[in-house]
Amino acid sequence: MSRSAPALRPYLPEDAPLLAAIFAASIMDLTGDDYSEAQQEAWAQAAEDEAAFGKKLAGQLTLIATLQGSPVGFASLKGTDQIDMLYVHPSAVGQGVGAALCEALEKIAGARGAKKLKVDASDTALDFFRKRGYVPQQRNTVTVGDEWLANTTMQKTLDAVAPSPPGGHA
Ligand SMILES: CC(C)(COP(=O)(O)OP(=O)(O)OC[C@H]1O[C@@H](n2cnc3c(N)ncnc32)[C@H](O)[C@@H]1OP(=O)(O)O)[C@@H](O)C(=O)NCCC(=O)NCCS
């Protein structure tokens, strides 16, 4: 069966409730092999205050992936060289949505002059990022609410973006 490539668009303030729902569903349905239920709940609670969550999304470079026009995932770039969020709805995993979002952030970061891109990857996403060329740097333990969660800082060297020659010819 052929699958359609996800389309990408920038975040708009009215997307916040839908992205909060994708965030919570993604955590609660996809990370259970790696985190306890208490850890998942603490993590998912970060989107419970929709206004604060929307403010965070708006303060970063946030991209939304859609399939047949419906948002199914999102990713955000913090500063010039850090992937902060990458979440795909459980009903849309395995269709290249995460890869499309990640690739777009890599291109944007590279075009803005970043030489490397970092991510504090969840244990669930570790192999996804490894497959894309991210190399583990260090293990971290972070507090989220009353819970401690482990993640891994990973880093990818971005391809040098060749500047266009003046006049369009080499
Ligand atoms: C990790 C996540 C974003 C992947 O999204 P996705 O849309 O399913 O990923 P894709 O379909 O684009 O997969 C791209 C490739 O990575 C592989 N892959 C995806 N998730 C993987 C995983 N958890 N482990 C190993 N490989 C994985 C796919 O098989 C695919 O391989 P291929 O190119 O050989 O076909 C998604 O599972 C998710 O939202 N997880 C829960 C939230 C989370 O942990 N986010 C990360 C916070 S840092």
TrEMBL record:
Keywords: Acyltransferase, Transferase. This is N-acetyltransferase YafP. The keyword Transferase applies. The keyword Secreted does not apply. PANTHER family: AMINOALKYLPHOSPHONATE N-ACETYLTRANSFERASE-RELATED-RELATED. GO terms for molecular function: acyltransferase activity, transferring groups other than amino-acyl groups. InterPro entries: Acyl_CoA_acyltransferase, Bact_Acetyltransf, GNAT_dom. SUPFAM superfamilies: Acyl-CoA N-acyltransferases (Nat). Residues 6-159 form the N-acetyltransferase domain. Signal peptide: none annotated. Its EC number is 2.3.1.-. It holds the Pfam family Acetyltransf_10. It is an enzyme of class 2 (transferase).
